[in-house]
Specification:
117 residues, L-2-Hydroxyisocaproate Dehydrogenase, Chain A, domain 2, three-stranded antiparallel sheet, 4 helices
């Protein structure tokens, strides 16, 4: 588990190194955004059981907002789904990273507030 965790954490740098400066990881973000929009549009058109992960109010209470699986419907989020339980190792990692996640979320909210949206 620790080897896999290290590999996932360094995956962004690995992608950049493999591209040798010819491309950036921005394409991964663009692809993820495109897939998300496709799923939202599918739900708006009536497709059922569309599940995506979205930054929503956190039902667990450890943070005001967190990425959670959500069931989409024609009008948007139909229901926030349970993310599942964490293993002991995952819970420890989550607790270690939570302050960093909270700071990043606050920075994002501050940027939106400054832009007046």
């Amino acid at each position: 588990v620790s080897a896999l965790t290290r590999r996932v954490r360094s995956s962004g740098a690995e992608v950049l190194a493999a591209s040798q400066g010819r491309t950036t990881a921005v394409y991964s973000v663009a692809l993820a955004a495109a897939r998300f929009v496709e799923r939202v549009l599918a739900a708006r058109e009536g497709e059922e059981n569309v599940v995506v992960h979205a930054f929503v109010q956190c039902p667990r209470g450890s943070a005001p907002y967190m990425t959670q699986p959500v069931l989409l419907c024609r009008r948007g989020v139909g229901r926030v789904l349970q993310a599942g339980s964490l293993s002991g190792t995952e819970q420890c990692e989550f607790e270690l990273l939570l302050p960093k996640l909270l700071r990043a979320a606050k920075r994002g909210k501050d940027v939106v507030a400054q832009r007046g949206r």
